[in-house]
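Changelog-adjacent note: as of this version, every example in the card shows the full chain rather than a window. The one below runs 362 residues end to end.
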Amino acid sequence: MKELNSPSVRAIDGAGMIDRVMTMPEHFQQAWTDAQGMRLTLDKSRIQNIIIAGMGGSAIAGDVVRCATYGSLPVPLHVCRSYRLPFQPTDKTLFIASSYSGNTEETLSAFDVARRSGAQIICVSSGGKISEFAKADNLPLFKLPEGFPPRAALAFLVVPLLTIFSHCGWLTSTSSVGPQKVDGEIAGLSAQLRELRKLYAPEAGDENNFAKKIARALYQKIPLVYAGVENFEAVASRWKGQFCENGKTLAFWNVFPELNHNEIVGWGLPGAFDRNLQVIYLRDRDDHERIQRRMDITRKVIEQTGNPIIEVWSQGESRLTRMFSTIFLGDMASVYLAVLNGVDPTPVTKIDFLKNELGKNT
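Full-length structure tokens:
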């Protein structure tokens, strides 16, 4: 199996995804500084529902904030990953178009519906058509730095959402983002990630480098990422996406308690197939006590098949920090997995092919 020291990682990681991941703490700081220039004029009194429209790396930001604020928002929040919206928006809807490129066709389709509905609209993008429409319609636009793969711009996509929610007074509960103001939250989160960076960096030895250990355990395996639905659904989804995009390997995810009502039955079929799988538990101290119990019992079912589970406990104080400490670990592991697979983690040639083929019919 390949070495995972700095020279071997950088020899394969030609486009520098490892550096994109490791500078996430600085991304948060920059994104927060950039967001301070925004002047929002929302009519908070008439917001009765929220839609965040996006795809891929742009949509996961919405899911992260949805999970970070689970149980504390005064109005329903929907993350839309489609051409069509889940319900007809009205002038009582806050619609957030989140597209890093600004050209995501599904998001543009949803955005067009929102523009004709009278909804209050805010755009989050680095450019493209979304930015053009925002300027033409005089809509608030969080302008993101250019040149990132969308999945590597997560901090830049999350901070505008936190800024909007803070502006609306929705981040005051200690059960959601945390007891601090958002600026203190970002500072604490960045500090936590800087400490973890020392542990997970290519220069850190294998013995205590959890990111490298996870990558080695996943080599030539199919990752199954399991987490509790309330807090860490978005984190499990992020891990799966990063293993697919960075690691160039199929991966899947599910959540408790739903998987106990169906997927658990799929374990244990005679034969060697189960041995090709590797389950990762993403655990958090705020997981519902019955979910924690379910995870412990399900471990017994899975490990009877000869598959020891990798267990990851979140780190940090606030929920958002704990979520991103786990996201950061998964991002690092996904790059190391790419190196073990002998592939540059940055190119996504299959997505490029798909977009080119779709473009032929427009």
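Structural remarks: The first helix runs from residue 6 to 12.
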